[in-house]
Amino acid sequence: MAVYTEISDDELARFIRSYNLGSLLSCKGIAEGVENTNYLVHTTKGAFILTLYEKRVDPKDLPFFLGLMEHLSARGVTCPLPVRDSEGRVLNELAGRHAALVTFLEGMWPTHPKAEHCLELGKALARMHIAGAGFALHRANALGLSGWRPLFERFSPRAAEILPELKTLIADELSFLEKSWPADLPQGVIHADLFPDNVFFIDDKLSGLIDFYFACDDALAYDIAVSINAWCFEPDCEFNAGKGRALLEGYNSVRPLTDAERKAFPTLARGAAMRFLLTRSYDWLNTPKDALVARKDPIDYVRRLRFHQTVRSIEDYGFELAR
Ligand SMILES: Nc1ncnc2c1ncn2[C@@H]1O[C@H](COP(=O)(O)OP(=O)(O)OP(=O)(O)O)[C@@H](O)[C@H]1O
Ligand SMILES: N[C@@H](CCO)C(=O)O
């Protein structure tokens, strides 16, 4: 579920009146999602997503997220476009929360991504990276290398509740990543959470990207590593080289990877596995078992991490990339 904040009919009607969106026809809570409260709103001018930002979003980051969606939309990336109210504001307040309305995107996310989806995703990710250039605002990656150890320290005394050897595995891996993390890769705006549930398709054609609430400035190739982990492993956590190749080839056909990015890829993939292993472990230990939000299994990311630890070069993944 992701309806943490209820809105009264009066509050909603007043809120919608402050936009030039005609009359309110309906409003339904959306069950999917974890971080924020989302409603699907219909007015006589169309369909919109109303998001109330919950506690894990830092309000000072909202201009970055909303501005980025405007920047990308203006450069041809299909993503939600924040709607301005009659005074030109994209960020408002509703039911005691910061709130925004964005355009509704048609499409469905793929529950069983195929290589064809991965190819499309790779191209879209590269286009997004290119379109992000020149965005005026900046946001450091709060869940990047420097954020991993402090997050680990918040749950390490209880890590054995997930897996007896988890504490040692993470501690050793963090030492490796802190020593080996590449500092000189091409940087830009990354999505940082481009999982299948954030990518919509209509008839196997990619129709849009959503959920920019982890977007930040970081190494572009790190974003590819996040998506390889999210899209190219089977439910039993076996790596699917065909899907991986499709994603990389799609990306490389739009924005060719540099030699430094190719060389760093196995380390980036380990870091991307670490980031989701840490957040999932923290949430696993700190979300009440009877909470309505489904917890995501950290073990899936232990398996990904162990796989990447065996890889020495990008060729070991079975990728053959054109230069
Ligand atoms: N612009 C949009 N158009 C169509 N549907 C949307 C849009 N934005 C959100 N949704 C729907 O709302 C759901 C939750 O959105 P979103 O992923 O942004 O939520 P969240 O709370 O940030 O969750 P999480 O970070 O866990 O993915 C999506 O799965 C999708 O069904
Ligand atoms: N995509 C994240 C959760 C939402 O950010 C995960 O699968 O752990």
- The level-1 CATH class of the largest domain: Alpha Beta
Bound molecules: adenosine-5'-triphosphate, L-homoserine
**How many individual helices?**
9
Element-level helix/strand string = HEEEHEEHHHEEEEHHHH
Q: Describe it for me?
A:
It catalyses: L-homoserine + ATP = O-phospho-L-homoserine + ADP + H(+). Pathway: Amino-acid biosynthesis; L-threonine biosynthesis; L-threonine from L-aspartate: step 4/5. Its EC number is 2.7.1.39. One of its GO terms (biological process) is threonine biosynthetic process. GO terms for molecular function: ATP binding; homoserine kinase activity. The protein has 323 residues and is α+β, with helices and mostly antiparallel strands. The protein has 2 domains: 9-103, Phosphorylase Kinase, domain 1 (2-Layer Sandwich), CATH 3.30.200; 115-317, Aminoglycoside 3'-phosphotransferase, Chain: A, domain 2 (Alpha-Beta Complex). 41% of the residues lie in helices and 15% in strands. The protein has 9 helices and 9 strands. The chain has helices spanning 9-17, 62-74, 115-132, 145-155, 166-180, 220-231, 241-254, 259-286, 299-309; strands at residues 24-29, 37-43, 46-52, 92-94, 97-103, 187-190, 199-202, 205-209, 216-219. It has a 5-stranded antiparallel sheet with strand order 1-2-3-5-4, with helices on one face. A two-stranded antiparallel ribbon has the order 6-9. β7 (199-202) and β8 form a beta hairpin. α4 (145-155) packs parallel to α8 (259-286) and α6 (220-231) runs antiparallel to α7. The longest helix is centred in the C-terminal third of the chain and has 28 residues, at 259-286. It is globular, with a radius of gyration of 20 Å. The chain starts with 8 loop residues before the first helix and ends in a 14-residue tail after the last helix. L-homoserine binds at residues 34, 193, 195, 276, 279-280, 296.
